[in-house]
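Supplementary Methods, section 5.1.

A reviewer requested that the exact input to the structure prediction be made available. We therefore reproduce it here, unchanged from the version used in the analyses.
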Amino acid sequence: MGGSIPGAEVKHTERLVTMPGGGSVQVRSADDPDSLRGEGLDLCILDEASFVNERAWTEAIRPALSDRGGKALFISTPAGRNWFFRLHQRGQEGKSDWQSFSFPTHTNPYVLNEEIEAARQDLPERIFAQEYEAAFLDDAGGVFRRVLKAVTDEDDTAPEGGRYIVGCDWGRISDASVFCVVEINSGYVVEVDRMTNTDYQTQVTRLQALHERYGGNADIIAENNSMGGPIVEALQNAGLPVIPFTTTNSSKAQIIDGLALAFERGDIRIPRDPILIGELQAFESKRLASGAIRYSAPDGLHDDCVMALALAWSQREDNRPMVLMHI
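The structure derived from this sequence is encoded token-by-token as follows.
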């Protein structure tokens, strides 16, 4: 490198290249996060970030970027749903100053398709999905299995003229509001409308438009807790066929179990929506001291899409009869 950049000084022992203009590039190990503490950085590239201790980022690199307003680039094969997965989700959710991208091996023009297919035959399904398809896999606490197998191809769609149900999960201060539309007969998720920082009147207007878009005869099942009550009442006063749903630990477990069974049986088809897929893969169960199971997203993540989908699926015709209720 010193030969290709006149004036550059290469220090092999320190793995450091000093540029003629005063800048420098250094390769360092993250095995000991404390060793990365130091002066400010303009740019840091973390290779195989999934396998780096999160402390290297939070306690050493991130503070060093603040000194110069620097940037960071994370490159990695997925390794479950650790801190790298959480950063990836921030980019998918459109968080300010974050972008994330996923590139499966088949998009690499230097890897032969024959080699990819040979690996598919040689490797366990989970390993192939992680190493060749850039998939963030479920771990032991994961609730939904076979999520990626439920993803539809672009030309694989629900039949026209179907019957629909809309599940609504209302957002709070830090959450999104999500409307999820399921075609009853085929089990296809045909639309996911997700919105953040949106006032409730606008949400109601969007839901009315969504209802009309699917023929004006789609039943709506909406969360009725806290602020959901007044919204449900307003929707019913507007003439929309709304089924209120009160979320408790028990009722949530019932609809989540039904949705999980749908994935296990292959009854459901979902779009290639990265936020929906990410939430489904991250969703987990924990056993409480009482012995009950609590379902939720991991700390720092969201389950708005999951809940909207679970609500809609709970009212699918072949699960149980639809009953219209009014508050």
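The first helix runs from residue 54 to 66. These observations are discussed further in the main text.
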